Amino acid sequence: MHENTSVATVAPVQFPSSLGMRVQPGPIRLAVIDSDTGFVRVLAKRIGEMGWQHRVLTTPPRAEDLLSMRLHALVIDLAMLGPQGWEFLERVCDGLPGLGVVVCTGQSTVAQRVRGLRIGADDWVTKPCHPQEVVARVEAVVRRRKRTTGVAEEAPLVAGELEIRADQFQAYVGGQSLDLTRREFELLQLLSQAHGQVLPREEIYQRVWGYAMAHGDRSVDVFVRKLRQKLETASPGWSYIHTHFGIGYRFEPDGEDIESPVESSEPVADVLEGIALELGS
Question: Which of 117, 152, 187 is the last residue in one of the domains?
Answer without folding.
Answer: 152
